[in-house]
Inverse folding.
C-alpha cells in the first residue's frame, strides 16, 4: 500500500466560505471560458457543453450566466469575436463538368452520399453564420494563468479547473497550488474525524455511514493530490536535469 504523507497537521479553515459566494462563481466561470478557448475557438453553445464536461457530475452553467460572462470578458479584452464564415477548403465539385453523362451521374451519386452536414439547407447555414464565435486574446492568456495561480483551491469547482489548465503555469507554481489544496483537505479530514469522535455511539447508523463516506472521499482526494505533487516534482526534476545537461554541453563546446 502506498505510504501516505503526514495528515495530522491542523489547518485553519475559513468559516465564511460558502458554495454560494458570487466571487467564486465568477472566477470559476471566467477560468472555464478562458481555459477552453485557449485550446479552440468555439461559439457559446459549444462552450456551455464543454464547461459541463469539465465540471463533472451535474455541474455546468446556464446561458443566463454564460453570455453575460462572455460579454464582460470581451469588453475587458480577454477574448474577441472571430468571423465564423472564414474561407473553407475547396469543394470536391469545384472542377467543371466534362459534359459526359457518366461523369455527371458519378458526381451526383458522390454528392448524395455526403453526410447531411455537408448539404445543410440555406436557413441552417445562415443560423450557423449568426452564431458568435469566440477566441482568447494574449491578455486573456495572461488572465488565465493568473486565475490558475490565485483561485482558491479549497473550492472543489475551482480546483477541478486549476488542474485542467495547470499547464498554463510553471511546475513550481503547480506544486504550490497542489500543496494549498492538500492543506485544505487535511483540515477538512481532521474536522470530520473530530466530529465523529464527539458524536459517540448514539449517532444514527445512516448518518454515521454518511460521515464515514465523506472521510473516505477526502482521504481518496488526498491520495490524488499527493500523486499530483509527486508527478509534478518528477517533471520539475527531469526539466532541471535537462537544463543542466544542456549547460554542460554548451560549456564543453565553448572550450
Amino acid at each position: 500500500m502506498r505510504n501516505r504523507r503526514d495528515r495530522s497537521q491542523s489547518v485553519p479553515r475559513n468559516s465564511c466560505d460558502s458554495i454560494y459566494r458570487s466571487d467564486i462563481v465568477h472566477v470559476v466561470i471566467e477560468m472555464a471560458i478562458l481555459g477552453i478557448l485557449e485550446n479552440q475557438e468555439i461559439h457559446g453553445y459549444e462552450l456551455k457543453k464543454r464547461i459541463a464536461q469539465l465540471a463533472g457530475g451535474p455541474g455546468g452553467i446556464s446561458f443566463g450566466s454564460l453570455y453575460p460572462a462572455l460579454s464582460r470578458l470581451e469588453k475587458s479584452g480577454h477574448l474577441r469575436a472571430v468571423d465564423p464564415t472564414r474561407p473553407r477548403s475547396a469543394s470536391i465539385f469545384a472542377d467543371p463538368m466534362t459534359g459526359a453523362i457518366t461523369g455527371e451521374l458519378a458526381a451526383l451519386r458522390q454528392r448524395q452520399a455526403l453526410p447531411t452536414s455537408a448539404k445543410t439547407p440555406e436557413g441552417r447555414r445562415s443560423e450557423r453564420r449568426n452564431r458568435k464565435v469566440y477566441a482568447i486574446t494574449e491578455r486573456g492568456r495572461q488572465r488565465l494563468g493568473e486565475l490558475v495561480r490565485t483561485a482558491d483551491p479549497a473550492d472543489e469547482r475551482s480546483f477541478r479547473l486549476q488542474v485542467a489548465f495547470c499547464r498554463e503555469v510553471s511546475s513550481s507554481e503547480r506544486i504550490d497550488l497542489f500543496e494549498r489544496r492538500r492543506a485544505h483537505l487535511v483540515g477538512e479530514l481532521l474536522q470530520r474525524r473530530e466530529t465523529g469522535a464527539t458524536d459517540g455511539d448514539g449517532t444514527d447508523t445512516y448518518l454515521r455511514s454518511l460521515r464515514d463516506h465523506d472521510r473516505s472521499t477526502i482521504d481518496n482526494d488526498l491520495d490524488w493530490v499527493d500523486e499530483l505533487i509527486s508527478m509534478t516534482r518528477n517533471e520539475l526534476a527531469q526539466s532541471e536535469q535537462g537544463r543542466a545537461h544542456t549547460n554542460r554541453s554548451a560549456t564543453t563546446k565553448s572550450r
Summary: The beta strands are 42-43, 79-82, 133-136. The two ends are 51 Å apart (CA to CA). The chain has a mean pLDDT of 78. The chain has nine helices and three strands.
